[in-house]
Specification:
about 325 residues; alpha/beta; 6-stranded mixed β-sheet; rod-shaped
Length: about 325
């Protein structure tokens, strides 16, 4: 399932050409000079981005390198308008952003069934019936349809989650996610166990719930492309709260927190303004005295929660605190 997670694709998209207008002249047995009756051409098909809350990955679009909408049909006699070309719909998960080749945002999907026209189909040409005048009773020309648009569109998925888990590799993020949700992330005792973001739903008090995302481990220099962090930092932009996980066996707790925060701020300065909570993981190894020593390494206004996903220590308190911040 993890290998199916795709959050970045490039697709060559082309909308349909407009249909040509008709230059037909009316002919009937008893009407030798019936005049122009050519209809308009149909509109070319649009390329449309559509939200689908059943999807969680862009995998279906990974292998669609070229997408082309249908051309509009030409106009007919008796002023019949040609049929519009069929639109092409790209179904994407909620949280998908479409960009052009220059990085300009074309649209952003934030809700189910939301539709955004990425490329408009070409307008159909006018038939010769539009060009009849007192000085030109039988125009024998019509407009061709306008060409459609073509562009390479980049689709980026940013996961929508209430809480994002931030920490170095092996900080215990996947273990915590599996302890407080029903998610089953891969867990092992080596760096970069998590290669894709994992989502889980936390059941809180009074049948309330919120979504937590386990973001692959960040390392120092992630904002410059080192490790896996740069690729997945975009997912943190959508989280309401950032839960920093510092393991109890870290060498310098506050320094580790500062490195993580610095990498986020360098990637996007707005991330430094998000609500934050710090949890010391693997704290079943600590006694009260050691916990107090760790608290002293942080400024006084910092709130720390000492947790253990293995023993369940303070997990209820952690969920309550996250819920309180969210509301």
């Amino acid at each position: 399932m993890q290998s199916n997670f795709v959050d970045y694709v490039k697709v060559n998209c082309k909308s349909g050409h407009g249909g040509a207008g008709s230059a037909h002249l009316h002919r009937a047995k008893y009407i030798p000079k019936g005049g122009p009756d050519g209809g308009d051409g149909g509109r070319g098909g649009h390329v449309v981005l559509r939200g689908n809350n059943q999807l969680w990955t862009l995998l279906a679009l990974k292998y669609l390198r070229h997408i082309k909408a249908e051309n509009g049909k030409p106009g007919g006699k008796q002023e019949l308008t040609g049929a519009n070309g069929a639109d092409v719909y790209l179904d994407v998960p909620i949280g998908t952003i479409a960009k052009d080749e220059k990085g300009n945002i074309l649209g952003e999907i934030t809700e189910d069934k939301q539709e955004i026209i990425l490329l408009k189909g070409g307008k159909g040409g006018l038939g010769n019936s539009h060009f009849k005048s007192s000085t030109n009773q039988t125009p024998r020309y019509a407009q061709p349809g306008l060409e459609g648009e073509e562009a390479v569109v980049t689709l980026e998925l940013k996961l929508l989650a209430d809480v994002g888990l931030v920490g170095f590799p092996n900080a215990g993020k996947s273990t915590l996610l599996s302890a407080i949700t029903s998610a089953k992330p891969k867990i092992a005792n080596y760096a970069f166990t998590t290669l894709v973001p994992n989502l889980g739903i936390v059941e809180s008090r009074d049948f309330q719930s919120f979504v937590v995302a386990d973001i692959p481990g960040i390392i120092e220099g992630a904002s410059e492309g080192k490790g896996l962090g740069y690729r997945f930092l975009r997912h943190i932009e959508r989280n309401s709260i950032l839960l920093f996980l510092i393991p109890a066996d870290a060498e310098d707790y506050y320094k580790e927190y500062q490195i993580l925060l610095n990498e986020l701020a360098k990637y996007n300065p707005e991330l430094a303004d998000k609500e934050r909570l710090i949890a010391i993981s693997k704290s079943d190894l600590l006694d009260k005295e050691l916990e107090e020593e760790i608290r002293k390494t942080f400024p006084e206004n910092f709130k720390l929660i000492f947790i253990s996903a293995v023993t369940g220590k303070n997990l209820v308190e952690l969920k309550d605190e996250l819920w309180k911040i969210l509301h």
